[in-house]
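Customer escalation, tier 2.

The customer says the design service returned an amino acid string that "doesn't look like it belongs to this structure." They asked us to rerun it and document both sides in this ticket. The original structure tokens are below, unchanged.
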């Protein structure tokens, strides 16, 4: 058997379809049509609802025991009782079949407390059954039982109550039906989202995770025991410190003081969750002074069986019960009699309203002789007109009686009393929100995510609910809103008229900010509307936006009458968007991609709309030519946007854009290989080396165009320490030149320049790097510009340019290229810091490194954790703080190992080995240098460094001949370089070896040679190091010099 509406297979004993809720009537089966997938109707909406399934237990036995006519009478009475309990709480009995019912709370209108209403209805049904069973037992000698399941979540809801298909469908319906089937007689099982949405006053016991048919994972279930009052005092958290609201508290205190001189009526308005109840509670706790205040509170409700004046009655009863009696013991018995017969009895006037208000004013005025009455009427937005009029009359009758009336509610709904003084409650500011979040989490020192504060937008309830998933409530997928917020905001949106809702639905697809003219054009192209003739403006939507503004759902940006609008809150947009059907979203995203504001925002915005459109259509099963075209357009736009992000050095954004482009693009689509190659390069740059290299190998092996293959080959050569990088760069450079690919030329010349750096030929490298820089600038390629400049900076540091001139040129390059380019700031500030340290300017050096670190943090550079500590260690060692430098290098090495940066680990090992030797820690130095000694191909500078250090190790171990050979090798290899630093270091290492081997004269000569090289560069710490060799050597040098002068 299959469902007659959605054609899903049904269990043999099913009463309802578990997917859509349609009655599983035998014989109603019809064949599944072989047509295209059926889309939701345009008016279908996705909305949060609570579904209740109720089934009679033992109905088969009952039908055998009763005459059919009697059975029908019993069943109809039972249906009537269930319907009354459901409808009394705002629910809709959607399906009746046999002796079972399916009800929905949230259709046609969402209420913020739909989950509580459903639970109240479930308990009401059970109580009604007890009363009904008493009758049945007396008249027919039998009893019946029920089992109930309740679940909350998103459904697709239709608005046509006469349609033959279900009004709601979705997984929420399925789970509710399964919960009912698993409940025992008399039990009410509820799902976790229902428990969360209904609030903390629900009393349950765990029914254990249940294995529900059709669900892969077990579903937590709870057995409903009772439902506590929905008093805000119970539903809100008051266990955290009160934050902010100084001005509002002061204003309430002023009004309370003014009420001593005559009755005051105040209307406190604020959106749901802004903290009205908490503010009033805090104010009440702070009230002091002569004449003790007595507070009476009442709440307005939008459903129930109470009289229109019940909230006023609740407040008055509390005041009369708690107020001290007057000294003479006299009470206005006549006035109390009027109230007792109506207002205090059932919340009705009973007598003409004017007479009742006069009696109430008299009673409150007499009560005010011994205390200060304060009437608090909460949820005023649900106040019926009779209550509004009664409060207005009461205020006018009180005159000079010291009574304060405070009406607390949301904007919209019931109008404030005409004579009320308005007080508006807005959201918390950013700092206050962060403090409240810290209080709510119980971690005052823990940072709160900026995105969470952004989403909450100063609303304390939003903030509390958004923090819940990190606390003790069921985890929500992705960025899904907690059910409490979905219902709260959904109720506001659901109360809009069709025109307002239509405009809001279109706007939420466009984005947080939107243009009224563009919105009107989208509205005119919606299904069922007629587009205006070419050249004519569509009808304006501004009047509708102005109504939405009054409802505080949108707000204008700027002051122009036709200027842009935006959503008053991001969560409003989220909930409005979530309520749209996938079909509607797909259509509107496609239309939005052509809006002038979207195209002006660039390829990322266009591609984002197109991507959503094609993904939504695919989710509906629409794998057709239109979806394929949207997919191709989205991939192309996202690929272009990714390239632009790469050019602007925004690698994190580029990774997202290019990843989405590659996922959408067909392998043979134009631009697909380019996007794949760029994604590989970006992931390598972000430290995801293996992922990136795998993508680049795909480009090389899958027959890509020559230019793309050349880019991939070059990028892979950079990653492979064993590759002949320079030969690859020379091979691909003609390909780039022939294609006019400036980015490729910049990259190839950059690698050639770096190859010359690795051989120590810095002047040649500089010329190649300047050519690479010119190509990068012409192409607008920021990463290549930054890399070329950084390499130039390294040659300025290590090459023959004197320190003073090198600092001047480095700063000139920063001035010319660094403004607005954080990557350039990183790559130039690091070598600049070392140059400043060479010039004995450690403060400026650390300032340059600090700037580089700040910029690198903004860019999310994966390798910043390696190269920044290495540069900092170099600067620190030059200042003589070797132990600190060694600590920095250890941290850098651990990060380099994590990232797989083998080349950096060799450089770190050489630097650390030198520092350990300078500290006299010879065995540790030998151990630390092992990774460098095992490396296959070292740069010339590293070869010189390693040979000099090996010489010192051999000398320390008494292996003189080996030491001298290694030292000579270092000096000879350094001579092939134009780097004075490399030559000076090799000479100083040889001087140390000669000194330790007892050849002070030769050692002195070598030290003076090192000093000359250091001096040529302007390396002041090096000059001092060459002049201040170990004491024994200095003494020998001094004697030798004296002897030479004497002779």
């Amino acid at each position: 058997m299959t469902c007659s509406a959605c054609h899903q297979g049904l269990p043999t004993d099913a009463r309802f379809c578990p997917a859509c809720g349609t009655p599983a009537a035998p014989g109603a089966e019809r064949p599944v049509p072989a047509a295209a997938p059926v889309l939701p109707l345009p008016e279908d909406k996705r909305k949060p609802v609570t579904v209740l399934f109720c089934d009679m237990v033992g109905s088969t036995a009952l039908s055998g025991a009763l005459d059919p006519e009697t059975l029908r009478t019993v069943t109809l009475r039972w249906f009537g009782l269930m319907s009354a309990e459901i409808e009394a709480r705002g629910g809709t009995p959607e399906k009746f079949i046999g002796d079972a019912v399916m009800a929905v709370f949230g259709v046609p209108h969402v209420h913020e407390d739909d989950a509580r209403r459903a639970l109240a209805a479930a308990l009401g049904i059970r109580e009604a059954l007890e009363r009904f069973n008493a009758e049945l037992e007396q008249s027919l000698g039998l009893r019946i039982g029920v089992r109930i399941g309740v679940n909350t979540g998103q459904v697709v809801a239709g608005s046509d109550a006469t349609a033959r298909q279900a009004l709601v469908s979705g997984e929420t319906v399925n789970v509710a039906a399964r919960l009912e089937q698993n409940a025992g007689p008399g039990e009410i099982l509820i799902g976790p989202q229902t428990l969360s949405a209904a609030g903390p006053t629900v009393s349950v016991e765990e029914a254990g995770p249940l294995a529900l048919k059709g669900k892969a994972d077990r579903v937590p279930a709870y057995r409903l025991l009772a439902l506590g009052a929905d008093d805000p005092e119970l539903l809100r958290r008051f266990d955290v410190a009160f934050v902010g609201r100084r001005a509002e508290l002061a204003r309430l205190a002023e009004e309370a003081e003014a009420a001593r001189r005559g009755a005051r009526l105040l209307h406190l308005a604020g959106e749901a969750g802004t903290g009205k109840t908490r503010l009033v509670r805090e104010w009440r706790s702070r009230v002091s002074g002569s004449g003790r205040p007595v507070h009476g509170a009442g709440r307005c409700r939008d459903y129930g069986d109470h009289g229109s004046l019940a909230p006023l009655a609740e407040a008055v009863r509390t005041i009369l019960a708690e107020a001290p009696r007057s000294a003479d013991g006299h009470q206005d018995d006549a006035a109390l009699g009027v109230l007792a017969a109506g207002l205090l009895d059932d919340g009705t006037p009973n007598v003409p309203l004017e007479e009742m208000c006069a009696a109430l004013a008299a009673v409150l005025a007499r009560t005010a002789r011994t205390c200060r009455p304060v009437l608090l009427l909460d949820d005023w937005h649900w106040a019926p007109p009779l209550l509004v009029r009664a409060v207005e009359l009461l205020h006018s009758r009180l005159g000079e009686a010291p009574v304060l009336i405070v009406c607390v509610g949301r904007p919209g709904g019931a109008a404030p009393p005409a004579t009320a003084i308005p007080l508006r409650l807005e959201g918390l500011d950013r700092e206050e929100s962060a403090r409240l979040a810290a209080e709510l989490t119980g971690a005052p020192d823990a940072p709160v995510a900026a995105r969470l504060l952004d989403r909450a937008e100063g609303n304390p309830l939003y903030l509390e609910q958004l923090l819940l998933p990190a606390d003790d409530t069921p985890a929500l997928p992705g960025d899904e809103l907690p059910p409490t917020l979905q219902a709260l905001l959904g109720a506001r949106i659901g109360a809009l008229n069709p025109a307002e809702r239509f405009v809001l639905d279109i706007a939420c697809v466009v984005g947080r900010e939107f243009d009224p003219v563009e919105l009107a054009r989208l509205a005119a192209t919606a299904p069922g509307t007629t587009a205006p003739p070419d050249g004519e403006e569509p009808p304006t939507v501004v009047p509708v936006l102005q109504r939405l503004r009054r409802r505080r759902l949108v707000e204008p940006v700027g002051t122009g009458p036709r200027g842009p609008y935006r959503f008053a809150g991001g969560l409003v947009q989220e909930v409005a968007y979530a309520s749209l059907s996938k079909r509607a979203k797909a259509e509107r995203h496609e239309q939005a991609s052509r809006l002038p504001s979207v195209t002006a925002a660039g390829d990322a915005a266009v591609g984002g709309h197109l991507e959503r459109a094609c993904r939504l259509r695919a989710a509906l099963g629409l794998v057709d030519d239109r979806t394929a075209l949207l997919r191709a357009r989205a991939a192309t736009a996202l690929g272009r946007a990714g390239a632009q992000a790469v050019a602007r050095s925004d690698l994190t954004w580029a990774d997202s854009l290019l990843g989405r482009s590659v996922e959408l693009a067909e392998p043979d689509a134009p631009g697909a290989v380019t996007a794949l190659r760029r994604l590989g390069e970006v992931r390598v740059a972000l430290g995801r080396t293996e992922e990136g290299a795998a993508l680049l190998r795909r480009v090389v092996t899958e027959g890509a165009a020559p230019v793309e293959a050349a880019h991939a080959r070059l990028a892979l050569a950079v990653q492979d320490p064993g590759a002949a990088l320079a030969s690859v760069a020379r091979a691909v450079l003609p390909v780039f030149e022939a294609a006019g690919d400036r980015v490729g030329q910049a990259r190839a010349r950059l690698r050639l320049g770096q190859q010359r750096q690795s051989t120590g030929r810095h002047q040649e490298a500089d010329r190649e790097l300047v050519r690479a820089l010119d190509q990068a600038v012409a192409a607008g390629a920021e990463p290549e510009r930054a890399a070329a400049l950084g390499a130039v900076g390294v040659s300025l540091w290590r090459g023959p340019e004197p320190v003073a001139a090198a600092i001047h040129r480095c700063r000139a390059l920063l001035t010319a290229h660094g403004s607005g380019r954080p990557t350039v700031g990183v790559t130039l500030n690091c070598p600049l810091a070392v140059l400043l340290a060479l010039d004995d300017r450690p403060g400026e050096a650390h300032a340059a490194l600090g700037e580089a670190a700040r910029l690198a943090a903004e860019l999310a550079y994966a390798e910043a954790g390696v190269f920044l500590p290495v540069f900092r260690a170099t600067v620190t060692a030059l200042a003589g703080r070797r132990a600190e430098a060694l600590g920095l290098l250890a941290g850098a090495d651990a990060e380099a190992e994590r990232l797989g940066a083998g080349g950096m680990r060799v450089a770190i090992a050489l630097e650390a080995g030198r520092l350990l030797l300078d500290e006299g820690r010879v065995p540790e130095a030998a151990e630390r240098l092992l990774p460098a000694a095992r490396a296959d191909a070292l740069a010339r500078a590293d070869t010189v460094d390693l040979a000099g250090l090996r010489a010192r190790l051999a000398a320390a171990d008494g292996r003189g001949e080996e030491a001298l050979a290694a030292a000579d090798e270092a000096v000879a290899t350094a001579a092939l370089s134009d780097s004075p630093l490399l030559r000076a270091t090799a000479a100083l290492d040889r001087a140390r070896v000669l000194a330790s081997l007892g050849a002070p004269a030769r050692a002195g000569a070598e030290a003076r040679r090192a000093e000359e090289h250091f001096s040529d560069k302007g390396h002041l710490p090096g000059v001092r190091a060459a002049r201040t060799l170990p004491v024994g050597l200095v003494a020998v040098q001094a004697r030798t010099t004296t002897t030479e002068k004497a002779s």
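Tier 2 assessment: The sequence is consistent with the input. The first strand starts at residue 45 and ends at 57. The radius of gyration is 40 Å. Sent an explanation to the customer and offered a walkthrough call.
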